[in-house]
Design brief:
alpha+beta, globular
Length: 719
């Protein structure tokens, strides 16, 4: 349902066009229901529902409650293996021994130690075969009955939902925002964009679509519906489009098995190719990189049947090797191999983005006599590159003054490669020069604020969202490298999964590291207790869904707490019907059931490639504990992954990320300070319209104000 999607993405509730009446009782019921899951309706939203007839008011209220419950993970039942968790969790060996005794009992009585030894000596023990191991021994209703109600505390989360415009207006607004974004989207947002593109295909279209994968999504819908394509200006745009409509990877990271195309679709694709190459024959240079895919696509498009588009036929001639074309990257590599670094930079100047992404390598390889030429080429490219590329380079050079303890590269699929940093550092004066040039260009592109700028301090440590592919979707999820202060006395991690077709065993674990990133202990299904940290018990089957919890008192020893989800057996994160990770914060005296939506601070999907998920790390700092988002996946092994076996690789990646300096919102705010009035949010509403930047917008901002919150931070990235 479009309305639910809009609520979850924007925290705005589309206004209903239902019949008027007295919906005041429904509004009161909604307000109470929302508070139970940590949300609150704005005054305008409650007033709107109160003016509706009971039936449409109830429909809207049901949609709102369903949307927010899904958002924080409250739409499923989070049972715990040990019904008394966090109390009454036995020692691990004691529990296993108890299960083993139950397995060897014969005709009642008690198993002796000798019987246990014989059972173990007979060829090992499979925990899954032990009676009552890994499956819930009580219902969710029994779990609720065993726990007191949660005591509401002042620190509980309350997220405000606001009244929006009509559903079609909200859909069009969200569509234009996603389609016109200057940063790539993750899988979830691309799926939302695809759905909105269908609804908005005949409406207003964005003036520009900077991200090519977004173009592929939009054009995929337009191709199927027979609408004219938009923004196709390279041969690779056509290849991306063909991959998109075939259900493949429009980012071209992985190969796609192309579907059969209808004749009208073939005509549209070949006509687009013909137009691109006819306008600029140099665009044929892009074909070589994906030659095999072009050959496979040619088998589906039959270009030889369409002599009216000779330039499109040239594309496939290049792919088959019948015509040789040197591309720009190849010419640059040839110059680099000849140690002609200045000329290589000159060649790359025709592609400013590629030149800036290659700047570090060129500057490292350039002799002193050619370094000035490289810097001049880089300087000349700054005005033509996208703001996202400029910010990425600015962040990069900020980390090049000294070699890193480990060099980490995170792929689009959120897998992380870590190795030694063997690059020589860039000279300090060169880093300072590049930083100054980039700062000036970025500052010049930032819009001139028309109103005073008010910034919530909590948003300053949020990393700039330069790519949605580095982030999972969910609730209160921040980009990789972002930091958020933790309140309360107790962290509670949770993971939930529901298998699709075969037995699937996920294991929630936490690795504790000291200030030197050395292991200081772990808690998992093999070790239920460690210095006050407690595991809720091992669940090994998720036919109807399963949840595991870990409690971490913030007084526990160690400098870093690294929760992870290991796939021990069964379906991957992309195969299960549903999987999520999140954390709650509580005080020590706050009881209640193990999962309570009011205490959920963040909840993310787990949909990456790998067998070990590292959603985030919790770090002790001078300001207290902080949550630092990782969004990483380790390859792991096909099965039997355990925290004990990936301690070194996990610590390596955590250290590399924690030592990296990320560009945050504070960087952009500092650029604005030199040209506009910037104030810190102190909780008091201003008298005049403002531009607000924060995690969540305050209620009742003056008319004419604009708010940039988590769902809109990417709009701050200059074009």
């Amino acid at each position: 349902m479009l309305e639910k999607l809009i609520i979850q993405k924007t925290l705005r509730v589309p206004a209903s066009n239902g019949a008027a009446g007295d919906g005041t009782p429904v509004a009161r019921q909604l307000d109470a229901a929302l508070l139970d899951v940590g949300f609150s309706a704005s005054r305008a939203l409650l007033e709107h529902i109160g003016t509706l007839a009971p039936a449409p008011a109830m429909d809207l209220a049901a949609t709102v409650v369903s949307a927010v419950r899904e958002l924080v993970g409250d739409h499923v039942q989070h049972n715990a293996y040990f019904i008394g968790f966090p109390d009454d969790v036995p020692d691990t060996i004691e529990f296993w021994t108890d299960r083993l005794r139950a397995a060897v009992l014969t005709g009642g009585g008690t198993a002796t130690d000798a019987q246990l030894r014989d059972a173990i000596a007979s060829g090992g023990v499979n925990l899954l075969d032990l009676p009552a191991y890994g499956t819930y021994q009580h219902t969710y209703a029994e779990l609720l009955a065993a726990h007191d109600d949660l005591i509401t505390a002042a620190g509980d989360r309350v997220t405000v939902l606001r009244l929006g415009d009509a559903a079609d207006v909200e859909a069009a607004r969200l569509y234009l925002t996603l389609a016109g974004s200057s940063t790539p989207h993750g899988e979830a947002d691309l799926a939302i964009l695809s759905e909105l593109a269908v609804a908005c295909v005949d409406g207003t279209q964005p003036a520009e679509i900077p991200v090519r994968e977004n173009r592929a999504v939009l054009n995929g819908i337009r191709l199927v519906l027979g609408r004219p394509l938009v923004g196709v200006d390279t041969t690779t745009d056509v290849l991306r489009l063909a991959c998109q409509v075939s259900g493949g990877d429009a980012s071209l990271v992985t190969p796609t098995r192309f579907r059969a195309f209808r004749r009208p679709e073939r005509r549209m694709l070949l006509a687009a190719l013909n137009k691109v190459v006819g306008a600029s024959p140099d665009k044929l240079g892009d074909v070589v990189r994906y030659a095999e895919r072009w050959k496979r696509l040619g088998e589906r498009l039959h270009p030889h049947e369409y002599d009216q588009w000779p330039h499109a036929q040239e594309v496939f001639a290049v792919a088959r090797g019948e015509r040789r074309v040197r591309n720009l990257a190849g010419r640059a590599e040839e110059a680099i191999r000849a140690r002609a670094i200045g000329p290589a930079a000159s060649v790359l100047s025709a592609a400013p983005g590629l030149l800036l992404r290659s700047a570090d390598r060129l500057l490292r390889l350039a002799p002193a006599s050619e370094r000035t030429a490289v810097v001049e080429a880089v300087t000349g490219a700054l005005g033509s590159a996208s703001g996202r590329v400029l910010l990425s380079l600015r962040e990069h050079v900020d980390n090049r003054l000294t070699p890193a303890s480990a060099r980490m590269y995170a792929s689009r699929s959120r897998n992380a490669w870590v190795g030694p940093d063997e690059r020589p550092p860039l000279p300090a004066e060169l880093v300072a020069e590049l930083s100054s040039l980039l700062d000036a260009e970025i500052s010049a592109r930032l819009p001139e604020p028309q109103r005073p700028l008010v910034v919530d301090p909590e948003v300053l440590d949020v990393a700039l969202p330069l790519s949605g592919k580095a982030t999972e979707s969910g609730f209160a999820v921040l980009p990789r490298g972002s930091r958020a202060l933790i309140s309360g006395e107790l962290l509670r991690f949770f993971t939930y999964w529901r298998q699709t077709s075969r037995r699937t065993d996920y294991d929630l674990s936490v690795l504790l590291l000291d200030d030197e990133f050395h292991s200081a202990g772990q808690v998992s299904w093999t070790n239920y207790h460690h210095n006050g940290v407690v595991h809720s018990g091992d669940v090994t089957d998720a036919t109807n869904g399963a949840t595991e919890f870990i409690d971490v008192p913030l007084t526990a020893p160690g400098h870093y707490a690294v929760p992870q989800v290991n796939i021990y057996a069964g379906e991957s994160f992309n195969e299960v019907a549903e999987s999520m990770f999140g954390y709650q914060t509580r005080t020590r005296d706050k009881r209640g059931v193990p999962f309570d939506a009011r205490t959920v601070r963040a909840r993310s999907h787990l949909r990456g490639q790998g067998r070990v998920a590292l959603p985030m790390v919790f770090a002790k700092s001078e300001r207290g504990w902080q949550a630092v988002w990782l969004h990483l996946y380790l390859r792991g092994t096909p099965s039997f992954n355990r925290v004990e076996e990936n301690t070194f690789t996990t610590a390596d990646r955590v250290r590399a990320l924690m030592e990296r300096r990320y560009l945050t919102v504070s960087y952009l705010v500092d650029r604005w300070r030199a040209r506009a009035e910037v104030m810190t949010w102190n909780g008091r509403l201003p008298d005049e319209p403002i531009t607000f930047i924060g995690i969540e917008a305050p209620e009742d901002l003056p008319d004419g104000s604009e708010a940039y919150t988590l769902d809109r931070l990417s709009e701050l990235i200059p074009a």
